[in-house]
Amino acid sequence: MSALFTLSKTERLKSRKAIGLLFKEGLSVYKYPILIYFRHNERETQAGFSVPKKHFKKAVKRNLLKRRMKEGYRLNKHYVANLQMDIMIIYTAKKEEPFAKIETSIIQLLSNLSERKEIASS
């Protein structure tokens, strides 16, 4: 199995301090049903995933949607792999969407982030 398609512990955003800075200083992009907050850092790209308890009361549903978001990110992280940023992927829809729709949104947003980085660096 290729290491490109894994999502290791070091690639997950868990630090409360980093998450706080991300929401305080980061920028966001949105494509239904996904909202992505991002902020550049000095280490490797890390991603976090969130589903609001307000819309999905049952943990089973929240975990299902988080698994779908993680899989969409894992398969398409090559767009942002070398950008050195913190990313928080948030599910914003009020109903459960199929994996294909979630993955399409994640692909479009991650490619948008990589284009922004290329424009900013040139």
CATH domain class name: Alpha Beta
SSE ordering: HEEEHEH
How big is the Rg? 14 Å
Mean pLDDT: 92
Strand tally is 4
Secondary structure class reads: alpha+beta
- Beta-strand portion reads 15-25%
Major sheet, described briefly?
4 strands, mixed
**Number of contiguous helices:** 3
CATH architecture descriptor name: 2-Layer Sandwich
Low-confidence stretches: none
In whole angstroms, the N-to-C terminal distance is 35 Å
Describe this protein's structure.
The protein is an alpha+beta fold and 122 residues long. 42% of the residues lie in helices and 20% in strands. The chain has helices at residues 16-25, 59-76, 99-121; strands at residues 27-31, 34-40, 46-50, 85-91. A four-stranded mixed beta sheet has the order 1-2-4-3, with helices on both faces. Strand 3, helix 2 and strand 4 (85-91) form a beta-alpha-beta unit. It starts with 15 loop residues before the first helix and ends with a helix.
Write the layout of secondary structure elements.
Blueprint: H1 16-25, E1 27-31, E2 34-40, E3 46-50, H2 59-76, E4 85-91, H3 99-121
Parallel strand pairs: 3-4
Antiparallel strand pairs: 1-2, 2-4
Helix pairs in contact: 2-3
Task: Record keyword descriptors for this entry.
122 residues, alpha+beta, Ribosomal Protein S5, domain 2, four-stranded mixed sheet, 4 strands, globular
